[in-house]
Amino acid sequence: MDALVLLSAEGFAHATGAAAGVATMWRRAGAVAVLVPADPGVPEVAVVSDLFAAGFRRASHIVDVRESPIWVEAGAVEALAAEGDAAAGIAALWQAEGRGADFARPETFDASVTYRHLNEALAGTGLACGRIGVEFQALSVADFPLLAKALSPAEIVDGTGVARGLRSVKSVAEIGHLRQAVGLAEVGIAAVKAAVAPGVRRSDLAAVWREAVAAAAPAKGFSGAWEYISVGPDPWGGDAVAKAGDLVKIDVGCLIEGYTSDSGRTCVIGAPSRVQGQIFEALQAGFEAGLPLLCPGTPLAEVHRVTQGAIRAKGFGAYARGHFGHSLGTGPGSEEWPFISASGGAVLEEGMVMAFECPWYLTGIGGFIVEDQVEITRD
């Protein structure tokens, strides 16, 4: 590839160091874009929403910034005198920008403007006829023809694997965000475990989680928390009231600068039943078998094989799970590629941060999960 074009909000943030802005909320391509040439001597180009352009320039290392208007009417009017004529002053600012009465904003955003900027950037960097990797995973079938036409005559190929591979290996700063996020989540988990008792509702435990995290959250960087807490024999629904013998599954995460943690614990109120104990023992065996393999050079398919084999060896010969964990980052959910699966084909590398999990959700018994995060280091 001569260059990589990133279109997703998470790809944009990773490449630029700045937030993508609100126009990406529809998960449609063309709200923003980043052109990253393979030659490090050729400057990167970012296409950003006009609303976020000033903030982007402050946050990002990228110098070549091109703007695309979105639906929000906004502007900088610091030079407008407080007691002056608003209409005349703003008209003068618009005139300086070259904006006339025919200016119109799109309903949300206009992908064709973003793609035109990309086309011009390719021409300006001598890559108009190059082989351009595009983050296909961020494109719908409806979006693709417009992009392909706009970037013609460049050869368009799928750059998703390169983009997600780059995101899978974390920088020191990213690892710091994830370490802080999981530390904060552990504070919330401890509070939930302390609150587990007969008579407590699922919603009560969720409130404990939220309040504990909010109280311990840093003043800067905290960007949210999520929970999948279940109580009792139904791991999927309802505001169940806990009673003796019930399982409480705690699957939770916190976000720092958009990077999410993902941790899982299983509690029982009182002594576990024989069935509960056997199932948890099997999951713990799988976890303990797979954990030592999480080191550089190990194929994730091997971690999956060993983990599933250890669970099956405890008497559950047909137990099957598609993956036993995943990378962590800034995606729209809590799970990112690569996955600890039989079919993924990826190999662990130093600098990856993985969530390793052994769950089982059994209606009639309850939800089980053992899950931690692991930074893959040299040793």
What is the CATH class of the largest domain?
Alpha Beta
The largest sheet, given as strand count, sense and whether it forms a barrel, is: 6 strands, mixed
Can you name the CATH architecture of the largest domain? Alpha-Beta Complex
Shape: globular
CATH homologous superfamily (4th level) name of the largest domain: Creatinase/methionine aminopeptidase superfamily
Question: Uncertain regions: pLDDT < 50 for 5+ in a row?
Answer: none
Proportion in helices: 25-40%
Mean pLDDT: 95
Helix and strand element order: EHEEHEHHEHEHHHEEEEHHEEEE
Sheet-strand content, in percent, reads 15-25%
Q: What is the multimeric organization of the chains shown?
A: single chain
Strand element count:
14
The domain tally reads 2
Q: What is the count of DSSP helices, taking H or I runs of 4+ residues?
A: 10
Protein architecture, described:
The protein folds into two domains: 132 residues, Creatinase/prolidase N-terminal domain (Creatine Amidinohydrolase, Chain A, domain 1), CATH 3.40.350.10; 204 residues, Creatine Amidinohydrolase (Alpha-Beta Complex), CATH 3.90.230.10. The protein is built from ten helices and 14 strands. The strands form three sheets. It has a six-stranded mixed sheet with strand order 4-3-2-1-5-6, with helices on both faces. It is globular and about 75 Å long. The two termini are 33 Å apart.
